[in-house]
Write a structure and sequence with these properties.
It is a single chain. The protein is globular, with a radius of gyration of 20 Å. The chain has 14 helices and no strands. α11 runs antiparallel to α12 (about 255-270). By secondary structure, the protein is mainly alpha-helical. It has helices at about 1-10, 15-30, 40-70, 85-90, 95-120, 125-140, 150-170, 175-195, 200-205, 210-215, 215-240, 255-270, 290-295, 295-320.
């Protein structure tokens, strides 16, 4: 169990809900196709999960090696984030050779899954794989150009959803593309929430995010509200234009999470003394007691809210599409 927990920390496994969210949206559309099989869907989910975990680990490895190039000893490397970034690398729980082996395994599985779908569904899958690979490799330096959030949003929005749908059905769907744009913005909500709270760290590390580009935290909150609003509007307009199933309006059940997220981020910026009380309708708050003991509940409460908003938004669109 300890090795699994370490692996999930090493690869930021808490973010896997974003992979599952994208895959659920694919499932909602693809399960109506005669070509759809549950086995292929599970295979797709495995491949995308390996890409995400590998990208997370690769990003941390690059950050650690950047510090090493500056002459900082491994044991002295620290990242002034509220979460223990790359802790299991800097304290030598995992050696560089082990990290490289894990990366090779994760990306090999992902490539293997891609090859299977090329065989099943044709060469067009290769295009999605190449685009995904290029974006993943570019991601570690993308913060220099204010586009790291856009890259992740594009990968787990349109790229994974449209590519995954084609892999399972050998079809394209303009209606699904509309839905993938909503997922793109809910993914930005999660990333932007994280970056608002990591404002000082990102400035110190010369990481350029959309939050920093906005000029100040108050403007960054306005951008967060805009992302949430746009996601809802895409669904509403899609339903009113008869492009989406009316039942996808179930996403508006996530409004309490969205409202609490906005309130909580606003409290964070103006430094109010607030109490963090997870409610069942806010979603999952795993390891909450441990988080409180480590005194990072003020950070994880907001991060979990953003993640849960994105996950349940996707889940409800998938449910709304199916029924």
């Amino acid at each position: 169990m300890k090795s699994i927990k370490n692996f999930l920390e090493l690869t930021r496994g808490y973010s896997l809900l974003m992979t599952f969210a994208s895959c659920l949206v694919i499932f909602g559309f693809a399960n109506f196709s005669p070509r759809f099989t549950l086995l292929n869907f599970l295979l797709l989910t495995l491949g995308v999960s390996c890409v995400q975990l590998g990208a997370n680990l690769f990003d941390d490895l690059i950050d650690v090696k950047t510090k090493l190039k500056k002459g900082i000893e491994l044991k002295d490397i620290t990242f002034k984030t509220f979460l223990p970034k790359a802790r299991l690398i800097t304290n030598s729980t995992y050696s560089f050779s082990q990290i490289e082996r894990i990366l090779n395994i994760l990306f090999s599985i992902a490539i293997g899954v891609g090859v299977c779908f090329i065989i099943f569904s044709g060469w067009k899958i290769l295009i999605f794989m190449l685009i995904g690979g290029i974006l993943t490799l570019f991601y570690p330096i993308s913060s220099r150009y204010y586009c790291s959030e856009l890259i992740i949003g594009s990968i787990f929005g349109p790229l994974v959803i449209m590519g995954g749908f084609y892999a399972l059905t050998q079809e394209f769907s303009s209606n699904l593309f509309i839905l993938s744009l909503a997922i793109f913005f809910t993914t930005l909500v999660l990333l932007h929430t994280h970056n608002i709270m990591d404002w000082e760290f990102d400035i110190e590390e010369n990481k350029n995010t959309l939050a920093i580009l906005s000029g100040n935290k108050q403007n960054a909150i306005k951008i967060l509200i805009a992302f949430i609003t746009i996601a809802y509007l895409i669904i509403l307009i899609g339903v009113l234009s008869a492009r989406l199933n009316p039942n996808t309006l179930y996403v508006f059940l996530t409004l309490p999470i969205a409202a609490k997220l906005i309130e909580s981020i606003n409290d964070y910026v103006i430094i109010k003394d607030v109490e963090f009380k997870p409610r069942w309708y806010y979603g999952f708050f795993e390891n909450w007691e441990e988080i409180k003991e480590n005194k990072v509940d003020f950070y994880m409460f907001r991060l979990y809210l953003a993640r849960n908003f994105a996950f349940f938004f996707a889940l409800l669109t998938a449910i709304g599409t199916i029924i």
